[in-house]
TrEMBL record:
GO terms for cellular component: cytoplasm. Residues 1-25 form the signal peptide. The record marks 223-224 as: Cleavage. Belongs to the Ntn-hydrolase family. This is beta-aspartyl-peptidase. Pfam families: Asparaginase_2. It comes from Eutrema salsugineum (Saltwater cress). It comes from the Eukaryota. Its EC number is 3.4.19.5. The active site is at residue 224. Keywords: Autocatalytic cleavage, Hydrolase, Protease, Signal. InterPro entries: Ntn_hydrolases_N (IPR029055), Peptidase_T2 (IPR000246). The keyword Signal applies. One of its GO terms (biological process) is proteolysis.
Length: 359
C-alpha cells in the first residue's frame, strides 16, 4: 500500500475512533486479517509471508515472499532448484501468482535456468499483458527483467536421484502403452501388452499378474507449495511454486501454473490452493470449483470436499488435496489418498499452526 493511502486510511480511522471499538469487537468474531494459509507444514514460508503482510504489505507481495522463501529452502526438494529431475536429469520450474482484486495472473511453466519461480511469475504479471510464459521464452523473459540466470538448476541430490533411476531401467516413469516397457527409451507406442493407468501398473509375467502402485506422488513428493494470503485490507492473493513431478517427461507442465487448478482467488469470495497429482487434478480445475461453489453459497469445508470428490469419482486412486479460505479468513481443507496438512497464521496465533486433514 502506498504511503499516502496509508495516511488517508489512518486519518479516516481516527475520525471514527469512538465507533471503532464496537466494530472491532464484531470483526474479531468473524474476520481474521491478515491470514496466511499454505499447503503442507512449510513453516518458514508461512512466517516469511506473515512478516510481510503483518507489516502492511499487500497480499500479492506476501505470497511472493512466502513462496520465494520455500524456493530458497528447497521445501521437500519439490520447490525451487535442485529437485525433481525429469527424464533428462534436468530441473524445471512452474509457478503462478494471482491477485484476487484485479484477477490478474502471472505464471511460468517448464522454466529452465532460472531458480526464482514465483518472482518470474510476478514479473510476467507486472511487466506483460500475458498470463503464462513457458520454456526457454519464460527463462529469457525472467532474465531480461533482472532475475539471476542463466544457471544450472541441478543439485548433487537431483543428479544422484536421476542416475539411480537410470540404473533402475528408468523405473518408475510416466510413460504408458509404450515399448520398451521396462527399459529406458527411445519409446514407441505399443498397442496391447502392458497397460498403465491411474498410477497402477499391471504387468504380466510367467508368475501371473503383478500389480503395484507407482510411488510418483506421495508423502515425500509433495509436489507444490500453494499459498493464500488475505492482507489487512481484506484483499486476497494466491501463489504456487514447484519443480514438478520427479522423472516427468521433458516438457510436462503440471497444475502449478494453471490458474483455477493449483490456485484461485477472488476477493468477493475467497481463495484456494491445491496440491497432489497435478496431471489428474488440472483436468478438474479444483480451486476454481471451490471458489465458485462458495460463491453459490456452499460452506467452506463442503466446497473443499466437493471439489475433491468430483475428482475421486473418476480417479479413485488419485492423491491430492485442497485448502480453502473464505473472505472472512476462515479456512478448511479436504484430501484424498493421503493425509494432508496445511499451515496457518492469523492474528490469534503466536506462530504458525499446522492443521491435519484425514482423507
Ligand atoms: C516493516 O515496514 C517498515 C516501514 O515500511 C520497514 O522500515 C521495516 O523494515 C519493515 N520490517 C520488516 C520486518 O520487513
Ligand atoms: C548441470 O550440471 C550437471 C553437472 O555438472 C550437468 O551434468 C548437466 O548437464 C548440467 N545441466 C545443464 C542443463 O546444463
Ligand atoms: C463473514 O462475516 C460477515 C460479517 O460477520 C458475515 O455476515 C458473513 O456471513 C461471513 N461470511 C462467511 C462466508 O462466513
Amino acid at each position: 500500500m502506498a504511503r499516502s493511502d496509508l495516511s488517508i486510511l489512518l486519518s479516516t480511522l481516527l475520525l471514527f475512533l469512538p465507533l471503532l471499538t464496537v466494530a472491532e469487537a464484531e470483526l474479531g468474531k468473524s474476520e481474521k486479517f491478515p491470514v496466511v494459509v499454505s499447503t503442507w507444514p512449510f513453516l518458514e514460508a508461512v512466517r516469511a509471508a506473515w512478516r510481510e503482510v503483518d507489516n502492511g504489505s499487500s497480499a500479492v507481495e506476501a505470497v511472493v515472499e512466502g513462496c520465494s522463501a520455500c524456493e530458497e529452502l528447497r521445501c521437500d526438494g519439490t520447490v525451487g532448484p535442485g529437485g525433481s529431475p525429469d527424464e533428462n536429469g534436468e530441473t524445471m520450474i512452474d509457478a503462478l501468482v494471482m491477485d484476487g482484486v484485479t484477477m490478474e495472473v502471472g505464471a511460468v511453466a517448464a522454466m529452465r535456468y532460472v531458480k526464482d519461480g514465483i518472482r518470474a511469475a510476478w514479473l510476467v504479471m507486472k511487466h506483460s499483458q500475458h498470463t503464462l510464459l513457458a520454456g526457454e521464452g519464460a527463462s529469457a523473459f525472467a532474465i531480461s527483467m533482472g532475475l539471476p540466470g542463466p544457471m544450472n538448476l541441478s543439485s548433487p541430490e537431483s543428479l544422484k536421484k536421476w542416475s539411480d533411476w537410470k540404473e533402475n531401467q528408468c523405473q518408475p516413469n510416466f510413460r504408458k502403452n509404450v515399448v520398451p516397457a521396462n527399459n529406458c527409451g527411445p519409446y514407441k507406442p505399443n498397442n496391447g501388452g502392458m497397460d498403465v493407468s491411474g498410477g497402477i501398473r499391471t504387468e504380466s509375467c510367467e508368475m501371473g499378474t503383478i500389480e503395484y502402485k507407482l510411488p510418483l506422488v506421495g508423502p515425500h513428493n509433495h509436489d507444490t507449495i500453494s499459498m493464500a494470503v488475505i492482507d489487512k485490507m481484506g484483499h486476497i492473493a494466491v501463489g504456487t511454486s514447484t519443480n514438478g513431478a520427479t522423472f516427468k517427461i521433458p516438457g510436462r507442465v503440471g497444475d502449478g501454473p494453471i490458474v483455477g487448478s493449483s490456485a484461485y482467488a477472488d476477493d468477493e469470495v475467497g481463495g484456494c490452493g491445491a496440491t497432489g497429482d497435478g496431471d489428474i487434478m488440472m483436468r478438474f480445475l479444483p480451486c476454481y470449483q471451490v471458489v465458485e461453489s462458495m460463491r453459490q453459497g456452499m460452506k467452506l469445508e463442503q466446497a473443499a470436499k466437493d471439489a475433491i470428490s468430483r475428482i475421486a469419482r473418476k480417479f479413485p486412486d488419485f492423491v491430492g488435496a485442497v485448502v480453502a479460505v473464505d473472505k472472512n479468513g476462515s479456512h478448511a481443507g479436504a484430501c484424498h489418498g493421503w493425509t494432508f496438512q496445511y499451515s496457518v497464521q492469523d492474528p490469534e496465533m503466536d506462530d504458525v499452526q499446522v492443521f491435519t486433514v484425514l482423507p
